[in-house]
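U., I forgot to send this yesterday:
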Amino acid sequence: MRYGFGVDLGGTTVKIAFFEDTGKMLEKWEIPTNTQENGKHILPDIAASIRQYLTEKGCEDSRILGIGIGVPGPVNGEGVVNRCINLGWGVFNIAQELGALTGFPVTAGNDANVAALGEFWQGGGKDCRNMVFVTLGTGVGGGIVVDGHLIHGAHGSGAEIGHMILEREEAEACNCGNHGCAEQYCSATGVVRLATRYLASHDTPSSLRALSPITCKDVFDAGKAGDPAAEAILAQFYQYTGHLLALVCNTIDPDVVVLGGGVSKAGSMLLTGIRPYFDKYVFHAASGCTFALATLGNDAGAYGAFKLALDACGG
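Result:
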């Protein structure tokens, strides 16, 4: 039996998991992400934590096949990070640097893409060959697997579907600097934006008017309770999201779209709400795509990161 590590690097915490080469997760833990001094302590901290774990378990280096890591920023196929703003990083080869610190082969990828690989391998996309993974959280992230292979893109920004333009006349800027991105409407913050705008421009009675601030969960809960304003707001959200997924599926033609992120906690309500709009906009030949909810939760990134390492060593 050989082993390896899957590392999910976030802006607040680093999730580290230890796996058998069968894909079974044996243990997981977290360490703080130290972003001081432009994040120069992050990789040494990860290496030290991995080394400490191996020492405690008495595991020999020869049994470690490698380390995979998901990074919150663009990463190309050679492991070069092209700026991670929230970590303070510029452009450098994370695979080489973490490899030098640990003594193990390292494979790196964008965190959303890596989470997609995890869901493809052991989660909502298991047993499929073509999958689109969409995270509906504070923003909108994505990952695409075609014929069993994760799509990184030429510049490490493959599957940035949250920045596809849905509204060309949008006055408010997206965090990326553009206007009218899907992320502005299809995320948890997008739901709040739609709710704020709707309540300001309509007189529809609503329980949401008594809440300050309004959250995405508030809107979904009110919608479930039959609040007419919430239902109208969610209809807008479903239309935008269905349109986005149709555009993506017209290009990729996947077997399944797997939805994750905080908004996916709405469950079947989310899937049934989006589907009619997806069916309206999708090209007929791609309409056979099914929808599923992500199943790995916060572990998707660690699973996917380890799968990167496993694939890199021919496992």
